[in-house]
Amino acid sequence: MLVRKKGGPAEKLEKDDKIRSHDFYSPGGHIRFFLPQAGRNFEARIIKAFTPFTNSAVLLLDTSAASSYLPDRVILKLADRRFTTRFDRHWNLDTEQDFQANLSQYFQRHGTAPPGLDDDSLVNETPLWFHELRFWHRSATAHRVECEAYKRLHEAQNLGLIPKLYGLTKVQMADTEIHPSLDVIEGLLLGYVPGRPMGSFRLGVDIPYEEAEKVSQKVLEMGRRLRRYGITHNDIHTDNIILRSPDNSPVLIDWGHAGFGVADAPLEERWNSERVWDDYYGRLRVILKLESWHSFQTPWANEEVLRMARKWGKGGFKFWNERIEASLSPGWERLYEEDKSVDVNTGQ
Ligand SMILES: Nc1ncnc2c1ncn2[C@@H]1O[C@H](COP(=O)(O)OP(=O)(O)O)[C@@H](O)[C@H]1O
Ligand SMILES: [Mg+2]
């Protein structure tokens, strides 16, 4: 049993199991989304799709049609269960038909969604459609978590440490009224950060090592500032840090795995929470080190060391970093805390 509505994103589908995300969200195409602050739908042109999609479908939109509510360029991040490519999963028209038919049948029989969506032990025992429903559940949960993070991180938005949230939205797929996974795709409208994710830079080619060192210091400062809010990110990696042009200031995106364990505690507790420390102190240093962004400027990093490291390229910096680290680790840790605006013990 198929439950699809003409005019929804599924309308374009034909019997072809090679259908992929770009059939739905191709640049130049249009997308209709509901904007609560206006109480109506708007149509926007897709300027860019950030493919390959992993957990969600992220689009850059021309939103000039909604210019009294939104800037002209906005990011739409859709919790679209179909395009999760994680876990070796590839959605296609057959799995979609199977999903819709079985979910509808289940509802007719039981009047409710099946239990056990959070239960990982069921992974090998359940039919494919149930897995599809788990993916929906996963992306709906990540969407809710991300909404909460943005709602709590107002100040960080104003400081430019994370994108601005312009609103929550929905894209209507169908109106079966059987289950939200069949009817709507929920989304976030976020400020567009012009620039590039750190993960896309080739050090020494796209960005000189000296500039990478400056960026590293800015990333650590971003970490110190975010640490004060006590909200863990839990998915920090270089593709989730965009360097905003033109000054390469870092912006941390993708808050779908955030944690709020100590978010309401007093500042000193937030600042000293082990989990919060892990993210904004530990994790950031690990990625800067592993991906060679940080050249570990210590008293050892004199002209001669820098000259040799430069001569050897990326491997050279790694070599010297390892030597410096091996013999002087308390030294380089101290040098990360040059920012006197935050007390390193209390976050005040
Ligand atoms: N606000 C933004 N401004 C500019 N690019 C963005 C923004 N949000 C996301 N992107 C781009 O889309 C990609 C995927 O977004 P992300 O939020 O990390 O989604 P996912 O949860 O699927 O990883 C990012 O790596 C980045 O290239
Ligand atoms: Mg991401």
UniProtKB/TrEMBL annotation:
This is Aminoglycoside phosphotransferase domain-containing protein. It holds the Pfam family APH. Residues 74-261 form the Aminoglycoside phosphotransferase domain. It comes from Agrocybe chaxingu. InterPro entries: Aminoglycoside_PTrfase, Kinase-like_dom_sf.
